[in-house]
Design brief:
Layout lengths: L6 E4 L6 H11 L6 E4 L10 H14 L2 E3 L3 H12 L2 H15 L11 H8 L4 E3 L3 E4 L9 H5 L2 H5 L18 E4 L8 E3 L2 E3 L14 E7 L3 E6 L4
Parallel strand pairs: 1-2, 2-3, 5-6, 6-8
Antiparallel strand pairs: 1-9, 4-5, 7-8, 9-10
Helix pairs in contact: 1-2, 3-4
Protein backbone atom coordinates (compact mmCIF):
# COMPACT_ATOMS: atom_id res chain seq x y z
CA UNK A 1 0.00 0.00 0.00
CA UNK A 2 1.35 3.40 -0.98
CA UNK A 3 2.05 6.04 1.67
CA UNK A 4 1.89 9.83 1.38
CA UNK A 5 5.50 10.63 2.25
CA UNK A 6 7.16 13.07 -0.11
CA UNK A 7 10.85 13.09 -0.99
CA UNK A 8 13.56 15.10 -2.66
CA UNK A 9 16.44 13.03 -4.04
CA UNK A 10 19.69 14.76 -5.03
CA UNK A 11 22.20 13.36 -7.49
CA UNK A 12 26.01 13.10 -7.50
CA UNK A 13 27.69 16.32 -6.32
CA UNK A 14 31.40 15.45 -6.69
CA UNK A 15 32.88 18.41 -4.87
CA UNK A 16 30.85 21.07 -6.69
CA UNK A 17 30.16 23.22 -3.65
CA UNK A 18 28.87 26.37 -5.34
CA UNK A 19 26.45 24.37 -7.46
CA UNK A 20 25.17 22.49 -4.42
CA UNK A 21 24.66 25.72 -2.50
CA UNK A 22 22.57 27.16 -5.33
CA UNK A 23 20.46 24.01 -5.70
CA UNK A 24 19.79 23.76 -1.96
CA UNK A 25 18.44 27.31 -1.98
CA UNK A 26 15.92 26.25 -4.63
CA UNK A 27 14.94 23.23 -2.53
CA UNK A 28 14.29 25.07 0.74
CA UNK A 29 10.61 25.46 -0.13
CA UNK A 30 10.32 21.66 0.16
CA UNK A 31 11.47 21.63 3.79
CA UNK A 32 8.64 19.31 4.86
CA UNK A 33 10.02 16.46 2.73
CA UNK A 34 12.66 13.81 3.34
CA UNK A 35 15.87 14.70 1.49
CA UNK A 36 17.80 11.74 0.14
CA UNK A 37 21.32 12.36 -1.14
CA UNK A 38 22.43 9.42 -3.27
CA UNK A 39 26.19 9.63 -2.66
CA UNK A 40 29.40 10.70 -4.41
CA UNK A 41 29.67 13.96 -2.52
CA UNK A 42 33.44 14.09 -2.97
CA UNK A 43 36.26 13.74 -5.55
CA UNK A 44 36.96 15.33 -8.92
CA UNK A 45 35.36 18.70 -8.16
CA UNK A 46 37.14 21.68 -6.55
CA UNK A 47 35.77 21.76 -2.98
CA UNK A 48 34.67 18.47 -1.44
CA UNK A 49 35.27 19.79 2.08
CA UNK A 50 32.77 22.62 1.57
CA UNK A 51 30.24 20.15 0.14
CA UNK A 52 30.42 18.06 3.30
CA UNK A 53 30.20 21.19 5.47
CA UNK A 54 26.99 22.13 3.67
CA UNK A 55 25.49 18.65 3.95
CA UNK A 56 26.20 18.41 7.67
CA UNK A 57 24.61 21.81 8.20
CA UNK A 58 21.63 20.93 6.00
CA UNK A 59 21.02 17.67 7.86
CA UNK A 60 20.82 19.62 11.13
CA UNK A 61 17.91 21.65 9.76
CA UNK A 62 16.06 19.14 7.58
CA UNK A 63 15.21 15.44 7.56
CA UNK A 64 18.08 14.01 5.48
CA UNK A 65 19.32 10.57 4.46
CA UNK A 66 22.92 10.32 3.28
CA UNK A 67 23.74 7.32 1.12
CA UNK A 68 27.23 6.02 0.48
CA UNK A 69 28.60 6.29 -3.04
CA UNK A 70 31.55 4.43 -4.49
CA UNK A 71 33.73 7.49 -3.95
CA UNK A 72 32.98 7.61 -0.22
CA UNK A 73 33.71 3.89 -0.13
CA UNK A 74 37.06 4.41 -1.87
CA UNK A 75 37.95 7.21 0.51
CA UNK A 76 37.23 5.10 3.59
CA UNK A 77 39.10 2.18 2.05
CA UNK A 78 42.10 4.44 1.54
CA UNK A 79 42.02 5.88 5.04
CA UNK A 80 41.44 2.63 6.91
CA UNK A 81 43.07 0.06 4.61
CA UNK A 82 45.80 2.23 3.10
CA UNK A 83 44.45 1.66 -0.42
CA UNK A 84 45.22 5.13 -1.72
CA UNK A 85 46.03 4.25 -5.33
CA UNK A 86 42.48 3.35 -6.33
CA UNK A 87 41.06 6.45 -4.68
CA UNK A 88 43.59 8.96 -6.02
CA UNK A 89 43.23 7.91 -9.66
CA UNK A 90 39.47 8.38 -9.35
CA UNK A 91 39.59 11.99 -8.23
CA UNK A 92 40.66 11.52 -4.64
CA UNK A 93 43.55 13.94 -4.93
CA UNK A 94 41.11 16.82 -5.41
CA UNK A 95 39.43 15.84 -2.14
CA UNK A 96 42.74 15.63 -0.30
CA UNK A 97 43.65 19.09 -1.58
CA UNK A 98 40.37 20.56 -0.36
CA UNK A 99 41.24 19.45 3.19
CA UNK A 100 44.69 21.05 3.24
CA UNK A 101 45.33 23.82 5.76
CA UNK A 102 47.48 26.93 5.28
CA UNK A 103 50.58 24.79 5.86
CA UNK A 104 49.58 22.39 3.11
CA UNK A 105 48.74 19.56 5.50
CA UNK A 106 45.55 17.57 4.90
CA UNK A 107 43.31 16.97 7.90
CA UNK A 108 39.75 15.62 7.93
CA UNK A 109 37.75 16.93 10.92
CA UNK A 110 36.09 14.43 13.22
CA UNK A 111 32.56 15.48 12.25
CA UNK A 112 33.41 14.90 8.60
CA UNK A 113 34.78 11.44 9.38
CA UNK A 114 31.57 10.67 11.25
CA UNK A 115 29.61 11.87 8.23
CA UNK A 116 31.46 9.51 5.89
CA UNK A 117 31.29 6.53 8.24
CA UNK A 118 27.56 6.99 8.81
CA UNK A 119 26.54 7.03 5.15
CA UNK A 120 24.06 4.26 4.36
CA UNK A 121 24.14 1.54 1.64
CA UNK A 122 20.47 2.11 0.75
CA UNK A 123 17.21 3.63 1.93
CA UNK A 124 14.11 1.50 1.56
CA UNK A 125 10.63 3.03 1.70
CA UNK A 126 7.12 1.90 0.87
CA UNK A 127 7.16 3.33 -2.65
CA UNK A 128 10.85 3.89 -3.47
CA UNK A 129 14.22 2.24 -3.04
CA UNK A 130 17.07 4.74 -2.96
CA UNK A 131 20.58 3.53 -3.72
CA UNK A 132 23.78 4.99 -5.11
CA UNK A 133 24.31 2.97 -8.29
CA UNK A 134 21.59 0.36 -8.72
CA UNK A 135 20.92 -3.30 -8.11
CA UNK A 136 20.59 -6.59 -9.92
CA UNK A 137 17.58 -6.46 -12.28
CA UNK A 138 17.22 -10.26 -12.15
CA UNK A 139 16.47 -10.22 -8.42
CA UNK A 140 13.70 -8.61 -6.46
CA UNK A 141 14.69 -5.77 -4.15
CA UNK A 142 13.87 -7.95 -1.16
CA UNK A 143 16.16 -10.68 -2.43
CA UNK A 144 18.99 -8.20 -3.03
CA UNK A 145 18.90 -6.60 0.41
CA UNK A 146 18.86 -10.06 2.02
CA UNK A 147 22.13 -10.94 0.24
CA UNK A 148 25.28 -9.28 1.66
CA UNK A 149 27.16 -9.87 -1.60
CA UNK A 150 24.51 -8.00 -3.54
CA UNK A 151 24.61 -5.08 -1.10
CA UNK A 152 28.33 -4.72 -1.79
CA UNK A 153 27.46 -4.08 -5.44
CA UNK A 154 24.91 -1.34 -4.69
CA UNK A 155 27.63 1.32 -5.09
CA UNK A 156 28.86 -0.04 -8.44
CA UNK A 157 25.94 -1.71 -10.25
CA UNK A 158 25.08 -0.73 -13.81
CA UNK A 159 23.59 -3.91 -15.29
CA UNK A 160 20.05 -2.60 -14.82
CA UNK A 161 20.71 0.13 -17.37
CA UNK A 162 20.96 -2.46 -20.15
CA UNK A 163 18.22 -4.83 -18.98
CA UNK A 164 14.97 -5.08 -20.90
CA UNK A 165 13.10 -5.98 -17.72
CA UNK A 166 13.61 -6.00 -13.97
CA UNK A 167 12.00 -7.80 -11.05
CA UNK A 168 11.87 -4.80 -8.73
CA UNK A 169 8.79 -4.31 -6.57
CA UNK A 170 9.01 -0.52 -6.58
CA UNK A 171 10.80 2.39 -8.24
CA UNK A 172 14.58 2.47 -7.72
CA UNK A 173 16.15 5.94 -7.52
CA UNK A 174 19.90 6.11 -8.17
CA UNK A 175 22.88 8.15 -9.34
CA UNK A 176 26.40 6.95 -10.27
CA UNK A 177 26.04 6.83 -14.06
CA UNK A 178 26.20 10.34 -15.57
CA UNK A 179 23.83 11.04 -18.45
CA UNK A 180 22.88 14.28 -20.22
CA UNK A 181 19.30 13.84 -19.02
CA UNK A 182 17.73 12.05 -16.05
CA UNK A 183 16.96 8.39 -16.65
CA UNK A 184 13.29 7.45 -16.53
CA UNK A 185 12.56 3.83 -17.29
CA UNK A 186 10.67 0.85 -15.99
CA UNK A 187 10.78 1.14 -12.18
CA UNK A 188 13.84 3.39 -12.29
CA UNK A 189 14.86 7.03 -12.01
CA UNK A 190 18.50 8.02 -12.54
CA UNK A 191 19.57 11.49 -11.37
CA UNK A 192 23.30 11.76 -12.08
CA UNK A 193 23.53 14.38 -14.83
CA UNK A 194 27.28 14.90 -14.61
CA UNK A 195 27.48 18.02 -12.48
CA UNK A 196 31.28 17.80 -12.39
CA UNK A 197 31.52 17.14 -16.14
CA UNK A 198 30.51 20.58 -17.36
CA UNK A 199 33.00 20.33 -20.22
CA UNK A 200 31.29 17.25 -21.59
CA UNK A 201 28.59 17.94 -24.12
CA UNK A 202 25.12 17.94 -22.60
CA UNK A 203 26.28 17.50 -19.02
CA UNK A 204 27.13 19.86 -16.19
CA UNK A 205 23.91 19.90 -14.15
CA UNK A 206 23.16 18.92 -10.58
CA UNK A 207 19.75 17.28 -10.53
CA UNK A 208 17.14 16.75 -7.85
CA UNK A 209 13.84 14.93 -8.29
CA UNK A 210 10.64 15.59 -6.37
CA UNK A 211 8.71 12.45 -5.50
CA UNK A 212 6.05 11.26 -6.01
CA UNK A 213 5.60 13.95 -8.68
CA UNK A 214 8.73 12.93 -10.62
CA UNK A 215 9.51 16.59 -11.19
CA UNK A 216 13.16 17.37 -11.90
CA UNK A 217 14.91 20.47 -10.62
CA UNK A 218 18.31 21.25 -12.07
CA UNK A 219 21.09 23.66 -11.27
CA UNK A 220 23.67 24.34 -13.96
CA UNK A 221 27.22 23.87 -12.71
CA UNK A 222 28.78 26.95 -11.14
CA UNK A 223 32.08 25.17 -10.42
CA UNK A 224 34.92 24.73 -12.87
Amino acid sequence: MSDKTKYVAVGDIHGCARTLEALLKHLEIYSDRIFVFVGDYIDRGPDSKSVVDQLISYSEKYNCVMLQGNHEFMMLDALFNNNYAGWEINGGQATINSYRDEKGEAYIPEDHMDFFKNTKPFYDTTDYFFVHAGLNPDMTISESIADPEQIEHFIWERSHLHALHNKWEKTVVFGHTPRPEPITGSNMIGIDTGCVYSRRRGMGNLTAVLLPEVTFIQQESLDT
